[in-house]
Specification:
By secondary structure, the protein is α/β, with parallel strands linked by helices. The chain has helices at 29-43, 92-106, 119-130, 142-145, 154-172, 183-193, 235-240, 260-270, 284-293, 308-315, 328-331, 346-357, 361-376, 380-391, and strands spanning 15-19, 47-53, 60-66, 69-76, 78-80, 88-90, 110-113, 133-137, 177-180, 199-200, 220-225, 249-254, 276-280, 296-299, 320-323, 338-341. It has two domains: 15-200, Rossmann fold; 207-376, Glycogen Phosphorylase B (Rossmann fold, 3-Layer(aba) Sandwich), CATH 3.40.50.2000. 38% of the residues lie in helices and 19% in strands. It comes from Protaetiibacter mangrovi.
Amino acid sequence: MTDAPSSPPAEPRLTVLIGCDTFAPDVNGAATFSRNLAAGLVRRGHEVHVMAPAQRGRVGTFTEVHEGAPMTVHRIYSWRWLPHPWLRFMLPWRVKANAERIVRDVQPDAIHFQSHIVVGRGLATAAKRHGIRLVGTNHTMPENILQHVEILPKGTLDWLARVQWRAARKWFEMADSITTPTRRAAEFFERGTGLTGVHAISCGIDTSFYTADFAPRSENVIAFLGRLDEEKFIHEAIETLPLLADLDPKLVIIGGGEVRGRLEARARELGVTDRVRFTGRVSDEELRRELTEASVFAMPSRAELQSIATMEALASGLPVVAADAMALPHLVHPGENGYLYQPGDIEEFAGHLRTVLTAEPAELERLKRGALHTVVAHDIQRTLATFEALYRGEQIVDPDTESTSEPSAG
């Protein structure tokens, strides 16, 4: 996949403090990126501290091992957001004092906050007070967060979204560097906040963890990976199954979340319960096996600022059929590694899945090699090197992850 080294860089070791409003064991894009970033930096020889919400009252400073890398995690007293089954948040009126305490104790070379909603407010203030280089990464759109406040009318939600964008500007403009995972996400953020100069840096994945299998499949297995949330529109993948009945398709839904019951009900309504398998949360090894053994990957989400799950599928050599929305077109190049469908158009969605599932062996191999080619640019070693440069205050050129050139044969 890539020859990028994982050994420590030649420059002096850094002490980096990463601030997260969501972190492992949470399963979502921001938490996964933060975990991978922290673990990758540790493996490259840096000292890493993470400030994150406490889980189930486990407050304090601990050595935690994530992705095989030990790091210091400062778990801050948090409350669960009651409308949501797992989301926890640090108390805004206490986060500044905690951030100041941690910054004084750690004395980091750089601070990198992953959210302005709570943790970024405390860390941005402390970074400016102590003259520490500050990097901010945006993983969210206010509109997505507010979907969890369904009791409020739409007009109020729209107003709250504007308030959140103004808040994002207030805290992100304090950063020395601002990043998002893709150029489209950067443009969206710049429009929402009025800020400019936002860097597009892929979240990255360790492509060596994933295995592509070019052997013929005995079943037509469609895979989805991600949180079972409203914003993922997973029901659209279920609704393709009756249109593909002649192919005897199976849909495996990898992950857990609050809408599982509704998805199961939709499968019953359509009479496809026997064709849908919910795995719940699985180990990394099981996840990678499910992807390796699948035939095609489906991503119907409308709100992906990058989609680590889609990158994992590509790294597993899977053609992808995805919604033509937000950042997914950055990863899915029609006719090269998969296809895009108009969100909500179930017939088009099913048609593209059929194209992959019935492709001749040579065509399927071309799509699978296209998937592997696309993800090379997203190898995490490239991402880590770019963030190291930002932490040191160096000028960077955003990595090119948009190439759609065909991979060479073989």
